[in-house]
Specification:
- The chain is of the alpha/beta class.
- It folds into two domains: 119 residues, NAD(P)-binding Rossmann-like Domain (Rossmann fold), CATH 3.40.50; 186 residues, Dihydrodipicolinate Reductase, domain 2.
- Helix content is 31%, strand content 23%.
- The strands form three sheets. The protein has a six-stranded mixed sheet. Strands 1-3-2 form a three-stranded mixed sheet. It has a three-stranded parallel sheet with strand order 4-5-6, sandwiched between helices.
- Helix 4 packs parallel to helix 6 and helix 4 packs across helix 9.
- It is globular.
- The protein binds NADP nicotinamide-adenine-dinucleotide phosphate (NAP).
- The site of NADP nicotinamide-adenine-dinucleotide phosphate has 22 residues, from helix 2 and helix 9.
- The site of NADP nicotinamide-adenine-dinucleotide phosphate (NAP) has 22 residues, from helix 2 and helix 9.
């Protein structure tokens, strides 16, 4: 978030960096200056206009109301407030208008996998109204935080040198493996899968949209990929979808015909802002339905960039 504020030349007069006492005294570089990290406290938000939160759900539940009472508009990356009836859940390219109604002074930033999917599907939804989405995710390890990325590399090194692996952050081996590492939710679905169901419906403003998710963690450090099947109220052809996606805000479309290795990839998307859409093709079994491949950096468009874009629009 700090790097994105600097890169986009956000009009910051005073930058306040807050974390837990564990980080107190550390500093981050912003516009060539070292800015010290302070432990969050009751008076930390005085004179603050916008507070960008990314410190876990429990921290947001505790401190977002404090920041809002101090007059700041809170933009929260955690899942703590996303489904609260008085908190808008916003993706600027999709439903920025919802941010104007924020009675608690809090705006929620959606789940990283949901953000990249709705940015890509929005223009198609506006044209033909989505009825059903089947989504399978290939989520990078950075989605689980800094420590998880460290563990991926440690496990990879251990495996490469024939040593036993350790799993402290992940519930098992992630290097050279695939994991469903999210907490359990209802009906044999994970919490992450339910987030994709509920958040997609809230952002697109239609609780009747069917969402069938399967979320999988893959041994990739950064950037999520998704295979998406989508069926509409009326049939859509590939050509129409391409023409809509070509001019869609936040989307970079790869419309070349299929060729091995020639499609959006996490390694190339990591560190960049767009949502990459490729492999747009008509479904083989359901006439009028489409399949897409969607890739984006989960730390940027999936979190920090989306939050800063909301702040820019505010
Ligand atoms: N990673 C993603 O792709 C992604 C995407 C969307 C949303 N999110 C959400 O963003 C949040 C942060 O995720 P992350 O990946 O950045 O995790 P992370 O790498 O584990 O960082 C957590 C941050 O929160 C701070 N923190 C933890 N407990 C705190 C407390 N009690 N008081 C103040 N600060 C505290 C930590 O500071 P200390 O070192 O001082 O503890 C650290 O800076 C989470 O809510 C996550 O769900 C993450």
């Amino acid at each position: 978030m700090v790097a994105t504020l600097e890169k986009r030349d956000f009009p910051v007069r005073r930058l306040v960096l807050l974390a837990s006492p564990r980080s107190a005294g550390k500093s981050l570089r912003f516009r060539g200056q070292e800015v010290q990290v302070l432990p969050v406290a009751q008076d930390s938000f005085q004179g603050v206009d916008i507070a960008l939160f990314s410190a876990g759900g429990a921290t947001s539940l505790q401190w977002a109301p404090v920041a809002a009472r101090s007059g700041a508009v809170v933009i929260d990356n955690s899942s703590a407030w996303r489904m609260h009836a008085e908190v808008p859940l916003v993706v600027p390219e999709v439903n920025m208008q919802d941010a104007s109604s924020r009675p608690l002074g809090i705006i929620a930033n959606p789940n990283c996998s949901t953000i990249q999917m709705v940015v890509a599907l929005k223009p198609l939804h506006d044209a033909a109204h989505i009825e059903h989405i089947v989504v399978s995710t290939y989520q990078s390890v950075s989605g689980k935080g800094h420590a998880a990325v460290e563990e991926l590399w440690a496990q990879t090194r251990a495996l490469a040198s024939g040593k036993p692996i350790e799993s402290k952050v992940m519930p098992g081996q992630i290097a050279m493996n695939l994991l469903c590492d999210w907490k359990a939710g209802a009906q044999e679905y994970s919490e992450e899968e339910w987030k994709m169901v509920h958040e997609t419906r809230k952002i697109l403003g239609d609780p009747s949209i069917g969402v069938s998710p399967t979320t999988v963690r893959v041994p990739v450090p950064c950037a999520h990929a998704e295979s998406v099947f989508v069926r509409f109220k009326r049939p859509m052809k590939r050509e129409e979808a391409l023409s809509l996606l070509r001019k869609a805000p936040g989307v970079v479309l790869a419309e070349q015909t299929y060729a091995p290795g020639d499609h959006p990839q996490p390694a190339a998307a990591a560190g960049t802002d767009p949502v990459y859409v490729g492999r747009v093709r008509e479904d083989l079994a359901v006439p009028g339905a489409l399949n897409l491949w969607i890739v984006a950096d989960n730390l940027l468009k999936g979190a920090a960039l989306n939050a800063v874009q909301i702040a820019e629009r505010l």
